[in-house]
Amino acid sequence: MARQQRGIPASKLGARHGRLRRSVSWANAAKVLLTAVLVVAVSGVSVAAYAIWGVTKDANIVELAAVPKAEAIGAGSQSLEGELTILLVGSDKRKEGSVMYDGEEGELNDVNLLLHIPADHKSATVISFPRDLMVPIPSCTDPETGDVSSAMSEQQINTALSYGGLSCVAATITELTGMEIPYAAMVDFDGVIDITNAIGGVTVCIAQPIEDSETGLSLPAGEVTVSGVDALNFVRTRYGVGDGSDVSRISNQQVFMSALMRQMRSADTLSNPMKVYSLAKAGFENLTMSSSMASIEFLQKLAGTAVDIDLSRVNFVQYPSGAHPYNPGRLSPDRYSGDQLISIVLSGEPFQIAGVGEAAVAETPAEPAAPAEGEAPAEGEAAPAEGAEAPPVTVLPPNVTGQPASSQTCSAGRTQY
Length: 417
Hints:
Layout: H1 24-43, H2 46-56, E1 60-62, E2 84-91, E3 109-117, E4 124-128, E5 134-137, E6 152-156, H3 160-177, E7 183-187, H4 192-198, E8 202-206, E9 210-212, E10 217-219, E11 222-226, H5 228-236, H6 246-264, H7 267-270, H8 273-284, E12 287-290, H9 296-306, E13 314-318, E14 321-323, E15 331-333, H10 335-347, E16 351-352, E17 360-362, E18 394-395, E19 402-404, E20 409-411
Parallel strand pairs: 1-12, 2-7, 4-13, 8-20, 16-18
Antiparallel strand pairs: 2-3, 3-4, 5-6, 7-12, 8-11, 9-10, 13-19, 14-15, 17-20
């Protein structure tokens, strides 16, 4: 059993936001579950939607401050109309009786992913926000106690959940990005081992051996199929990859997420209804969702919205940040580059990521997305003149790292000490 990192008990700390050093296994196992949400969204497999609804019809339902417009779900249509933004949160809550239960109390949003699909439904971007990011948190109402917290000018992003639940996380990320969030879901982590076992493991590329005494992970270089505990520890590892930071860990997780996405799109996975059902069941037995998502109609339309998105237009990116000026170990958002990122994502235009993160190595260089041969231009767009060059593809700021789901990357292992 991998060792769990333990923090200072909350009872020993005076401030509510002191409960930050929690077991990282929960924070990073969330990536597997949250990727499964995206995988189901872009798979277009109706059995997955039914599977999710079957295990979440009794899920905890919450309300968000931002609600979708009435016309967002067109009557009788098989896809959502307009753009789509979904917040995917991973909570580190320990449930008594769970195999992960270690006696710690409280709940933090240690994983925050924002999925955006523009109105033309030709691309999807997943923005990952580091848990160590220091951001403003607006006034929030605790859904359990009714207590109203004061707005804070700077606080670690993963404390938002403790102040006002899922709605507070959405409001915090809206304040940072300016993006309205009408849909949100939150998962905890008992299903992580079952998810990777359900699909027969995930094959990842490792450039050099990974050794991490903190998680007990030991993997050789090469193509390695990880499942169960090894898969959990692969997405957990922080000290075994990059420079040992949370930012490096995210880039390592993007290696895993893109590999999982490609594997899920393979015929062997999607042609097997029982495999898809088992994956969905494993991933969504512990789910909280906004009321705006809580219908089989929405889940079916979500699948229909994303079914035709090419993997070269599914991008994983990390919100840009830098070292905090006076709080060691914390990060400050790079708002200039961040605003550029959000503007480009919202435009729906193709873009190119400048490079992979610290803990990833590009095995197959990413190619700028281009229309498929013979593809008609979108409504309102003029067809390019014969022999004319394609319009230039926007390159994201150099400190916005990530990769398309189609890009083959390897985990770099530890690169800095």
